[in-house]
Amino acid sequence: MKLTRAVPWTVRVIAAMQAASAPCCSKIVAPSPSGARRLAQALGVVSVKNGAGTGNTALAFHAGRLLALHEGDLPYAIRVLCSGLVETMGRLKLGGAPLRAFTAHPKIDPVNGEMLFINYRFEANPYVTAGVLDEYGNLIRRWGVELPYPVMMHDMGATQSYIVLMHLPLCFDPEPQSRKA
């Protein structure tokens, strides 16, 4: 097959976590389950005041906003200008108790416009939180899900009646991460 024209490919940056005081560290302080991000925060190398994610996993359109998603942070509302530039509008704020992360693959109900989401953490049960945003982007329900052990839950499923959580054997054990090699 012969290509008749080139297709331009461009990387756009979502203004999220910035290692402004130490740009050389941006590659090694990426959000991860390891202690690298927490160490960088403790040392004052990075600030997560305005978010800790990269918004580089997926896009979703909900409640009139285009959202850049990464499971390590809340979504960032963005807009694409006529020139093709991407402008970061801000980090999504959800009412109620603090929520540190949001799935990169939320599910939008095609009937009522609600967005279903999960997030996971490793520190304590409930290891998973599930929730629902109404068609206008307001948090209408959120609940914790207790599990026997924490796992990386990158995605979820949804039916008309249920959110399907995948408690798979991809586990994080911090003990080997803390040992010297």
From TrEMBL:
Its EC number is 1.14.99.n4. GO terms for molecular function: carotenoid dioxygenase activity; metal ion binding. It catalyses: all-trans-zeaxanthin + 2 O2 = 4,9-dimethyldodeca-2,4,6,8,10-pentaenedial + 2 (3R)-hydroxy-beta-ionone. The keyword Metal-binding applies. Fe cation binds at residues 105, 154. Binds 1 Fe(2+) ion per subunit. Pfam families: RPE65 (PF03055). This is carotenoid 9,10-dioxygenase.
